[in-house]
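User: C-alpha cells in, sequence out, please.
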C-alpha cells in the first residue's frame, strides 16, 4: 500500500467491510471509539485527542462566563465576528492553504510565526494537515476521515476517531510523514519520540505553545476592552472550534449530490461552493477540490475570498515571496467553455 493508504490509524470499526463498502458505524460505536481515544490513562499516545478537546472545553467555559456575566449585544457581535469570520479566515490561510497545500511561501520565519499565531490557537497542525491530505486522496471513499457518507456525527467526531496518525509506521515512513509538516515550523518528534508519544508533535512543546498563545491574546484583548471583551472573543473562538467540525459534512452536500451547473465545476466528488463559508472563510470548496494548491479559491466575481486578500497583501509588502493562483486556468479551462456552450445552446433554441 502507498503511504497515504496507511498514514492514519484506522478506527476499531474499520474503514470498509469485506465488500470494500464504507463502514457506517452506529451511534454507540462512534462514541465508544471517541471516549476510548480520549482516554490518556489507557494510553499516553491518546494525548493529541485529549489535549485538543481539553482546550475546546476550556474555551467553552469562556463562552459560558461571557453569557452569564458579561453579555451585551455589542460584545456578542464582536465575538461573532472574531469567531465566525476572523478565526475562519485564519483557519483557511494557515491550516488549509499553507500548512496542507503549501499554496504560498513565506519570505521569512517571522511572518510565518505571526500568521501561525494570528488568532487564539485551537488545533494542532498534525491533526488537520495529515488527515486533509488523505481526504483529498480518498474523497467520499472508505478511508476518507470525514467522509460525508458516514453521516454528520462521523464527521463531527473525526478529529478523534479518524484523524490520528498511524501508530505503526516504520522509521522510513515516519520521516516521509514529517515532510508534510516540517514547513510549518512546529517542533517535530524524532522517530524514538514518535514511538513513545504516537505523534509528530511533542506534548510539552505543544502545551507551552498553547499557553503562550492564549496568554498573549488574553492580555491583548484585556488591555483593549477588559475581561468582558476577552471573554467575548475567546467565546467566539469556542463557537468556531465546535462549528468547524461540521464543515466538511456540509461542504460535501451531506453525502448527497447538491452540485449546481455553472457553479460547481469539479465532478470528481460531492464538494460544493457555498455562499456563507465562501464569504466568511474563503472556502469555495468545489473550487478548492478542483485546484487544491491555489492560494486563491474565489474564482468568480461574486466569490469573495478574504484569505486571498490577506495572502496578496502580505505578498505586496514582501512577507510572502511566491504564491500559486489558478483563477485564470479555471476561467479558461472550465468557465469560459461553459459560458460558450451555454450561449451556443441558447442560440440554437432561438433558431428553432
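Assistant: Sequence out:
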Amino acid at each position: 500500500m502507498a503511504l497515504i493508504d496507511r498514514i492514519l490509524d484506522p478506527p476499531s470499526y474499520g474503514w470498509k467491510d469485506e465488500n470494500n463498502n464504507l463502514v457506517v458505524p452506529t451511534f454507540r460505536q462512534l462514541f465508544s471509539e471517541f471516549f476510548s481515544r480520549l482516554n490518556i490513562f489507557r494510553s499516553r499516545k491518546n494525548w493529541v485527542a485529549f489535549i485538543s478537546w481539553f482546550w475546546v472545553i476550556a474555551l467553552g467555559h469562556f463562552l459560558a462566563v461571557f453569557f452569564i456575566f458579561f453579555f451585551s449585544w455589542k460584545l456578542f457581535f464582536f465575538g461573532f465576528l472574531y469567531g465566525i469570520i476572523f478565526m475562519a479566515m485564519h483557519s483557511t490561510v494557515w491550516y488549509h492553504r499553507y500548512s496542507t497545500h503549501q499554496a504560498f511561501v513565506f519570505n521569512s520565519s517571522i511572518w510565518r510565526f505571526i500568521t501561525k499565531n494570528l488568532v487564539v490557537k485551537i488545533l494542532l497542525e498534525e491533526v488537520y494537515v495529515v488527515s486533509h491530505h488523505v481526504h483529498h486522496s480518498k474523497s467520499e471513499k472508505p478511508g476518507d476521515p470525514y467522509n460525508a457518507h458516514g453521516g454528520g456525527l462521523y464527521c463531527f467526531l473525526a478529529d478523534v476517531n479518524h484523524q490520528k496518525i498511524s501508530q505503526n509506521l516504520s522509521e522510513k515512513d515516519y520521516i516521509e510523514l514529517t515532510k508534510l509538516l516540517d514547513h510549518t515550523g512546529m517542533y517535530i518528534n524524532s522517530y524514538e519520540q514518535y514511538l513513545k508519544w504516537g505523534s509528530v508533535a511533542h506534548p510539552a512543546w505543544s502545551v507551552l505553545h498553547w499557553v503562550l498563545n492564549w496568554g498573549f491574546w488574553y492580555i491583548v484583548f484585556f488591555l483593549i476592552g477588559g475581561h468582558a471583551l476577552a471573554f467575548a472573543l475567546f467565546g467566539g473562538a469556542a463557537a468556531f472550534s465546535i462549528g468547524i467540525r461540521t464543515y466538511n459534512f456540509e461542504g460535501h452536500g451531506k453525502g448527497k449530490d447538491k452540485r449546481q451547473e455553472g457553479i460547481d465545476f469539479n465532478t470528481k466528488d460531492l464538494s460544493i461552493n457555498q455562499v456563507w463559508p465562501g464569504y466568511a472563510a474563503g472556502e469555495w470548496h468545489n473550487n478548492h477540490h478542483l485546484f487544491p494548491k491555489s492560494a486563491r479559491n474565489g474564482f468568480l466575481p461574486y466569490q469573495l475570498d478574504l484569505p486571498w486578500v490577506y495572502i496578496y497583501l502580505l505578498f505586496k509588502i514582501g512577507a510572502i515571496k511566491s504564491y500559486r493562483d489558478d483563477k485564470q486556468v479555471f476561467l479558461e479551462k472550465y468557465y469560459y467553455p461553459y459560458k460558450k456552450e451555454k450561449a451556443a445552446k441558447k442560440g440554437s433554441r432561438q433558431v428553432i
